[in-house]
Design a protein that fits this description.
- The structure is a homodimer.
- By secondary structure, chain A is of the alpha+beta class.
- Helices cover 30% and strands 24% of the residues of chain A.
- Chain A has 18 helices and 23 strands.
- In chain A, strand 20 and strand 21 form a beta hairpin.
- Chain A is globular, with a radius of gyration of 30 Å.
- Chain A starts with 20 loop residues before the first strand and ends with a strand.
- At the A-B interface, helix 3, helix 4, strand 6, strand 7 and strand 8 of A face helix 3, helix 4, strand 6, strand 7 and strand 8 of B.
């Protein structure tokens, strides 16, 4: 097919081009046939240009233009003209000019698309995913992927300028299920053996530190075979970073610099560094979350001391058992109806605690069903501790430390939502630090690593590993943006003995540790430097910075929550011959 | 462990630092205990600095320095001093100064490494791979990975500056075995179904063109489950590029620009663009290869016309059958002994043709066993056609076009090697174009795509698809560097009918095409633009530009030829539970 190559894009023509002969290529966005003349909005990823065909210009092109339909791909040669007075479109950058179409080539026809190629469509997402090539033509999707493109470039440039070395780690790696499930890849050449796809390049990047690379980064695909939630994908992208001869502050400073760049170059926003630090304890006891959203207040207060000797046995006995009584003031909550409160009590109970007590503070004083047990004075003190003002309502929960604060955390987010307390124009960045090394997994009936098994304990807590492991805090840090964990890292263990000890506390036996991580334990024997690092959730950051609702909107070809690609019908069945060669069969 | 953070790297200190207190961290490269003082060469990835410990400086540090051994990791605080006259080391950039060690912290000890951490070791490669973290400490390996790092940055910057959009395509894709075998990934959530790892993101990048992205690139991991040859890896890195509304020249020009950057920024070499173009026919008939190495001559001549009516039946009857008689002049080959020639005849026969004829041209004229059949005049004409000078030897082969030229191609490379004709300082870049669409696979007894099934035929050859498919040439192009294919691409088919026709010529039935590529055929119905692209072998280019012997030397963690990672013992056996969850079992 013969056609002229474009001389300009559809976003390029300005009054300065008037009179010039040009060629554009692109997709027919809209077509209006006014009988005498035909107007085409021609679209490419750079913009939209209006093209006019008419018999007074070129009869042959005008005749052919009658065949045009939405999404036809064409090449148009013509002349740039000033638009007539009153027809200028100030909404688009090319809105002052028209192209008079003299030669038209239809490069490809198009069937009628199953949804409109425009922003803010309310099409079912499955349909968008099936016809992803059409969905991606929509300007909001193009903008998101271009935003993501810029994120890649900023990231690489930033780390390159800071002397980091980009090194690719293997995708076909060793299966070491710890945490999530591995995706497995049967080996044809090694019958009965399997590769696994990396959940993260953790072991490799540590090995690179042992190899002396000092500062490593990679933007890398990682894989987790989990039951997918709305905001997870089986494959996701991570900015992976590791440094040697450093401490927490070095890593955090590097990360803050990158975030500063992102905000400045992508959104033209100056963010202040350093970001605030909250310890895990402060975050939990203040906001009930290890990734607190501080765009709004609702900070917690601990009422245990106030109520421990009160006549309200529900509270006093709870405190005596070692539990906590805590809560927060809900602004304007004194106005909640009985119905609203019943609903909130039910909501709170559904989170697994016994109930929700509350004290309304009105202009007339305390209004609370528990006043008769606690007494007016303690009620007032509780209101004071919670920072309540007249008109507020103090919500109180009592249970174990963990349950109290995680329940209050959920309740806090719920109240912020119901009361619309979140300033959507704010960007709240903070570090959560000093995580516990271990958390007890009810499911597995054992300690699991809160970060991962390669995380170093804080030097002052090392003795707890022998005496009281749950008390040991880790040299771990998470970066939180608007209540979302967007990066997590730690200073690593860098000697075999400590690593073996932590494996053993995690219930990974000597034999298992040797099989799975023997090469790391070996590597540590040949001169491992102190090192640490971090990994960013690239998709998550892209989603948050573009104000997208789902990470699927910032991924070109995402999968559904069942790990399925609707566009190309994947995963799919394969030939028996393929399975035979891989020495496996279906169960 | 408490230690001071480094103030400088081991490659940084100069006379301007003399007198300053500094801290260095790194690995003990060598240690010399002279009794009174101990010299340490301290190494990190930036260089080597000499540190001196002695009782006259600081007794405690000197005592501790006695414990140091190779590859110990240390932190040293001390003062920079001028080296005494006569001890300056001009070979290293820090060679004018010493650091006097005042405080020493041993950060980690090291066992004795199984091989020396130095360049040009002749250690068995398996041992290097097992202890890759030590192998990668060697300066030549560090340089290679830093070179590769620069290649990534140059590549991304170049494409970004040329308005290409970086888009990640899925790693968990659809299995569409065509060409090589797929690596498969069983789906847990979709029992009996499998993902495949991409052999290339070919279909996705074409879909991105249908989506209007216009200019796409990605540096991306690809996977082929093949029986590995020395220079192949199961996973490899590709620079993947696709453009819309373009022709061959646009792609080639973009590629030439990148190669120019690589040579300039990495090797400070100016390469001339545009690169020469050879058609497939010219490449085969001139050099017997579709990736000819033109750093040396040995160009072929076709003698068929000269011999077709001669009395030498071996040749004349061959020509009558439609075969070819061709060959090339070997400089100085008239001096080959009988023994050498017998050896070359055997070598040629081993390539699958009947034999090798030859005509020596000496100062006294023709010296050839076949002169008696051909006559002196034809022999002289053959020598003339081959450009032979006195002292040369014209090698002649006759068989089918394919066999003649591929045999001569192998023979040409062999002679270049034996006669040491390759100028190792030359960089020979060229394009091979106008490949046939199809080649007949003896193994599969059908036509297979020479490039891939999405390649467009040349417009003037489209009619051959109906009449004589092997005659149809493709809009395909390969970039060749010093006889290695380093990139290959094509202008693609962009409408369903042509795509279906090519599938059918390749023996891919309608049903199979629909199952495997239905989404692409569908996509082409909704307005696909004309498009084309190319893919570069990143590892191969890195290998060639760093003069490395194997692609394993430019990959951080490569696998052996049996797809095995010796460092971490991978692939490995997995728990039965893992297989159960994936609904598969071992055969």
């Amino acid at each position: 097919m013969q056609y002229k190559k474009r001389t300009h894009t559809c976003g390029e023509l300005r009054p300065s081009h008037i009179g010039q002969p040009i060629t554009l290529t692109g997709w027919v966005d809209t077509r209006r046939d006014l009988g005498g003349v035909i107007f085409i909005d021609l679209r490419d990823r750079y913009g939209i240009t209006q093209v006019v065909f008419g018999p007074q210009y070129e009869e042959k092109a005008h005749q052919l233009a009658k065949e045009l339909r939405s999404e036809y791909v064409i090449s148009v040669t013509g002349k740039v003209e000033q638009r007539p007075e009153g027809t200028i479109n100030p909404k688009i950058l090319t809105g002052e000019v028209d192209v008079v179409g003299m030669e038209l080539v239809i490069l490809n026809k198009a069937e009628n698309p199953p949804f409109a190629i425009e922003d803010d469509i309310d099409t079912n997402e499955d349909l968008r995913l099936k016809y992803r090539y059409l969905d991606l033509r929509r300007s909001e999707m193009q903008k998101r992927l271009l935003f993501r493109h810029k994120m890649y470039q900023i990231t690489r440039k930033y780390f390159d300028e800071h002397n980091f070395v980009e090194i690719e780690t293997p995708v076909l790696m060793k299966s070491t299920p710890e945490g999530a499930r591995d995706f497995l890849v049967p080996s044809r050449i090694n019958p009965g053996k399997f590769y696994a796809l990396p959940q993260s390049p953790q072991t490799y990047k540590q090995i690179l530190m042992v190899a002396g690379f000092d500062r490593y980064f990679q933007v890398v695909k990682c894989f987790r075979d989990e039951d997918l939630r709305a905001d997870r994908q089986p494959e996701f992208t991570q900015i992976d970073v590791e440094m040697s001869f450093i401490d927490e502050l070095d890593i955090q400073t590097i990360v803050e610099g990158l975030m500063k760049k992102f905000f400045k170059e992508l959104l033209n926003i100056e963010v202040q560094t350093p970001f605030p630090r909250l310890s895990y304890k402060e975050a939990m006891e203040g906001y009930g979350s290890d990734k607190p959203d501080l765009r709004f207040g609702l900070k917690f207060a601990d009422f245990s001391e106030l109520v421990k000797d009160s006549g309200f046995k529900v509270f006093s006995e709870s405190v005596k058992k070692g539990n906590v009584v805590a809560g927060f003031a809900v602004p304007g909550g004194a106005g909640f109806t009985r119905n609203q409160m019943d609903n909130l009590v039910d909501f709170t109970k559904s989170l697994g605690v016994g109930g929700l007590a509350y004290i309304k503070l009105t202009d007339k004083g305390i209004d609370s069903a528990i006043e008769k047990f606690l007494g007016n004075e303690i009620c007032l003190k509780i209101c004071e501790a919670a920072g309540a003002k007249p008109g507020d309502n103090v919500f109180i929960v009592s249970d174990t430390w963990q349950k109290t604060y995680s329940t209050l955390g959920t309740l806090r987010l719920e109240m912020a939502k119901r009361l619309n307390l979140t300033d959507e124009n704010k960007w709240n960045l903070l570090w959560v630090v000093d995580f516990p090394m271990f958390e007890y997994s009810e499911e597995e009936k054992r300690f699991v690593a809160m970060h991962h098994p390669f995380t170093s304990p804080k030097p002052e807590d090392e003795h707890f590993l022998n005496t009281d492991p749950p008390k040991a805090r880790a040299r771990a840090y998470d970066l939180v943006l608007n209540g979302n964990e967007i990066a997590g890292g730690s200073i690593r263990i860098f000697n075999s003995e400590m690593q073996s000890k932590v494996f053993s506390l995690l219930g990974i036996g000597t034999e298992e540790a040797k099989t799975k991580f023997g090469f790391m334990l070996d590597a540590f024997k040949f001169g491992a430097p102190p090192h640490g690092g971090i990994a960013f959730g690239f998709d998550r950051i892209a989603m948050l910075l573009t104000n997208s609702k789902s990470i699927r909107d910032v991924i070109a070809f995402p999968k559904t929550s069942s790990g399925y690609s609707l566009m190309d019908d994947n995963p799919s069945e394969v030939d028996k011959k393929q399975l035979d060669e891989l020495h496996i069969k279906l169960k």
